[in-house]
Amino acid sequence: MSGDDDLSGWHLTESDPAVFTELLKTLGTPYIVDDLHSLDPDALSALQPIRALIFLFKCLPLATEELNGLAGEYDPDFTGFFAHQTVNNACATLAVINALGNIPSLQAHHRLTDLLNFTTGMDPQTCGMTIASADWLREAHNDLSPPSTISLDGLGIPKDTEDAYHFVVYLPVSGSVYELDGLKPYPVRHGTFEDLDDGWLRRAREVIENRITTYPPSAIEFSLLAVRDDPLPAMNKQLELLQESGSDAAAAEMLLKISDETSRREQWAFENSLRRHNHIGLAHATLLALEKASLLQPAIENARKVMRERAERRRQDGFTGMDED
After folding, report:
1. Scanning 129, 167, 252, 265, which has the fewest C-beta atoms within 10 Å of its C-beta?
2. pLDDT digits over 206-235, tens only?
């Protein structure tokens, strides 16, 4: 679960492919993460092979899941890797680790493989505590999620209770689809699947779609990410084969795809560089400039107007609890 930064030292993480792909790169794995805007079979097949699905959602009362039959079945005899979340804000990285720990013949940096090997035989709670105490992993997690340098503590400003969001992972293990949620006592088994290329995805799609139905129809309080093989090595290999065979038209088409994928990685690198930068000084200078030009107060009033309009639209759509200020 993600909440305010605490003394654990783990900071909030964005649900963004660039952030997760950078983490996977730091961990030395041959995978990337892509956004999934649809659960249609065609959208999923375009990203194959998919190793796991990471689902971010706003936490609802547990009873809601139970009443709708969405909880699956706890599997206390799960033979794969499973770690509990023992500190706040670590759920994103824990979802990644829970996924990677169940990928057969995982290729990764020795620090990750050493950590996974060290936790062999541990119960989920002890395993989670071990992961949370890995300084190098916490540093990798925090690299793209710097803590806020602004504190309102001591100002007497009341703190509103914010919605809690959480990351879980869905993946195939031993012929069944499992949900690995670090806040639950055991892995959740969601049934078996046929041994087809997209068999587990079909079952996972049903589970996730059922879960989404517990939210209002226009809800946007969740996102879905796919952990997949990095396509660039295979694309470069295919380009070499096409060039050797003299298939110039197909080679040109493949070269264009490689260029598009490379450009996307460059964009991710740029976005991550912005995440690492402290923008407080820039924001402070901008506010001072607006004040000197007598533009700050009109900007504040306009922002309040926009927020009132947005809050009203949210209320009309059935959402509550949005602060207009």
Report:
1. 252
2. 999 888 887 776 666 788 999 999 999 999
| Nearest residue to 72 (alpha-carbon basis) of 211, 165, 202 | 211
- Give the whole-angstrom CA distance, residue 158 versus residue 147: 21
| DSSP label at residue 134 | -
Active-site positions read: 91, 166
In contact, 229 and 52? CB cutoff 8 Å: no
Residues in the chain: 325
Task: Quickly list H helices, the chain.
Answer: 17-26, 41-45, 62-67, 91-100, 110-118, 124-132, 135-142, 199-212, 231-245, 248-276, 280-292, 296-316
Tokens of 69: 């039959």
Please identify which residue in the block is written with the tokens 């996102």: 223
DSSP 8-state assignment for residue 271: H
Comparing 82 with 45, the larger pLDDT belongs to: 82
Q: Give the whole-angstrom CA distance, residue 233 versus residue 147.
A: 35
User: Average pLDDT in the 24-49 region?
Assistant: 91
State mean pLDDT over 127-154: 80
Q: Please tell me the distance from the alpha carbon of residue 134 to that of residue 115, in angstroms, as a whole number.
A: 8
What is d(CA 106, CA 98) in angstroms, rounded to the nearest whole number? 12
Q: Is the pLDDT reported for residue 195 higher than 80?
A: no
* CA dist list (Å): 167 to 55, 124, 207, 279, 314: 6, 17, 15, 27, 24
Rounded Cα distance, 82 and 92, in Å? 14
d(CA 238, CA 232): 10
Cα Rg of the chain (Å, integer): 22
Mean pLDDT across the chain, nearest whole number?
Answer: 85
- Please give the C-alpha separations between residue 108 and each of 63, 98, 129, in angstroms, as whole numbers: 38, 14, 21
